[in-house]
Amino acid sequence: MVDSVHMLLKRWQNLETKEVELFEEFTAISSEVISRTAFGSSYIEGRDIFQMLGELAIIVSRNLFKLRLPGISKIWKTSDEIKSNQLEKAIRDVVLGIIDKREKKLNAGEIDDYGNDFLGSLLKAYHDPDESKRITINDLVDECKTFYLAGQETTNSILTWTFFLLAIHKDWQEEARKEVEMIINETLRLYPPVINVIRKVERQVTLGNLLLPPDIILHIPILKIHQDPRIWGDDVHLFKPERFSEGIAKATNNNAAAFLPFGLGPRSCVGLYFAMNEAKITIAMILQRYSFTLSPDYIHLPTQILAMRPHHGVKVILHPL
Predict the structure, then answer these.
(1) Are 30 and 150 in contact (CB under 8 A)?
(2) Contact indicator for 164, 227 with CB cutoff of 8 Å
(3) What is the per-residue pLDDT across 198-215, written as a single tens digit (0 to 9) for each?
(4) Per-residue CA distances from 184 to 105, 136, 172, 284, 302 (Å)
(5) Cβ(156)–Cβ(27) below 8 Å
(6) What distance in Å separates the CA atoms of residue 176 and residue 204, rounded to the nearest whole number?
(7) Coiled-coil segments, which residues (predicted)?
(8) What is the pTM of this model?
(9) If we measure between CA atoms, which residue out of 307, 279, 270 comes closest to residue 143?
(10) Which label site among 67, 81, 147, 212 has the fewest CB atoms less than 10 Å from its CB?
């Protein structure tokens, strides 16, 4: 993570103009970090995966609430369905190529085992001598795709919106050099990467005064909960990182379950600490070198394409310290 941020800072140091578009910059760095830490490769090697997953995310987002008659896809496919199938196959081929490369290194004696990164752990599970613990090749490929997409999208969202808010509230840039955690939490409250999640009820359960039957779908509106004045107070729409100065429970009127940017409980995001560590490292290293202000060309239009992103990007003007 540190090496990847050093590469970013070196590139910024050589810029003729000090105006940068952060969403694009953080897309590159978060992709680089995922490639290096989880798959032992470089961003260039995984670039095709990120590009295709990005295209697939756009297709999924624009079809999320479209309904089609059951079985109609077997008779007639839309252009989006055809394209998504092509992307799915192409992504699988690239991931299988990365897996094959790792296995060939082991067989050739270039490495002693599959490695201690994410890919190595998956390969060990794929080859587990205990068949009951073994995962399938489809499991392996799907886990890789999920980590590539979720790991990149969430971290990029956190970084982009944190720097956007710090560019507006310049006084907090100095505070961030001392304590970055509560600033990230406040960013996640105002701009959570995922604005809602869906859960299926497996068996009858009582939730407050409600009796929920099995097989119904629950929609959990994270963004709505994060901006509910009954939980956060009348200043709910203001950027106030100090609300987290005494922890999440105090910030939410002793209702810590109301803060769920990465979900909650046993189904919370497995990449939570990965994303938070990357965000802290990146923010700390950039703030050691620069202060920044929002570009006058900035147009505010948050858009949900799997994760919340700025439709027109976030341009800032860098001021070397």
Answers:
(1) no
(2) no
(3) 889 999 999 889 999 999
(4) 40, 37, 11, 12, 18
(5) yes
(6) 46
(7) none
(8) 0.86
(9) 270
(10) 67
Higher confidence at residue 157 or residue 146? 157
- Helical H segments across 127-176, by residue range: 137-168, 171-176
Q: Which fold has domain 2-192+273-320?
A: Cytochrome p450 (1.10.630)
Spatial separation of the C-alpha atoms in residues 52 and 92, rounded to whole Å: 11
**Which residue has tokens 């956060």?**
232
Output the pLDDT for position 255.
Answer: 82
The C-alpha atoms of residue 39 and residue 239 are separated, in whole angstroms, by 36
Identify whether the C-beta of residue 218 lies closer than 8 Å to the C-beta of residue 200. Answer: yes
Q: Are 122 and 144 in contact (CB under 8 A)?
A: yes
**pLDDT tens-digit readout, 93-132:** 988 988 898 899 888 888 888 888 888 999 999 999 998 9
Which DSSP letter does residue 197 get? E
Query: b/e per residue, 121-156, with b = 16+ CB within 10 A?
Result: ebbebbeeeeeeeebeeeebbebbbebbbbbbbbbb
Q: Is 269 annotated as a binding residue?
A: yes
